[in-house]
Amino acid sequence: xxxxxxxxxxxxxxxxxxxxxxxxxxxxxxxxxxxxxxxxxxxxxxxxxxxxxxxxxxxxxxxxxxxxxxxxxxxxxxxxxxxxxxxxxxxxxxxxxxxxxxxxxxxxxxxxxxxxxxxxxxxxxxxxxxxxxxxxxxxxxxxxxxxxxxxxxxxxxxxxxxxxxxxxxxxxxxxxxxxxxxxxxxxxxxxxxxxxxxxxxxxxxxxxxxxxxxxxxxxxxxxxxxxxxxxxxxxxxxxxxxxxxxxxxxxxxxxxxxx
Length: 259
What we know:
This protein has about 260 residues and is α/β, with parallel strands linked by helices. The chain is built from eight helices and six strands. The chain has helices at about 1-10, 25-40, 50-65, 65-80, 145-160, 175-185, 205-215, 230-250; strands at about 90-100, 110-115, 120-125, 135-140, 165-170, 185-190. Strands 1, 2, 3, 4, 5 and 6 form a six-stranded mixed beta sheet that branches. The longest helix has 21 residues, at about 230-250. The protein is globular. The chain starts with a helix and ends in a 10-residue tail after the last helix.
């Protein structure tokens, strides 16, 4: 399913010299998935994989023109249909996560989450009831959850017209609810039971927490290493592309403990 998309992209972007490239596109995709999973630096890629120059060229090109998201969305539609659901959801769950930024990440793209005391960036996700990603947003950790919520709702509305309801936690305020109403999306703030102690999974909302847990298996996403927020968003799409290809093919990756 991925190969035709990349083949069409390659045909639409011919080399000025007519050179077809020294590396197979499948190997380029393998490099991106490998680096995402292991967290290694571009310069430390194994020698049996294409080098940084070739791999990063395609990573950046696909990030900038949305090919990475196109591949991701294609697999998401197929995964949902395999589970006997419509290609696009009617309900999404929104949440945010603050992550530390690595040394060298520009200060202009980072901030400090005043509530969680985390300096770095904030990752926002909108997922369906299967935990599949519908929209991704990355901003400085100083961004308010309302700002992230509004951005995610805008991206959800751009992606599909089928979403009619969104679930959020108490960190989101009425500004998100009002913005959702303008987009035709009913935003419900799910309140925590005051009597609950510790972590208590909330019905339907827990799937977004699971999605964050799955993404943490991809070591490149544990910390913010990318200089550009757009690259950080692309990392999420590639991680979920890997997750969905494994679900569709019935294969599993080694855990860190097994590696």
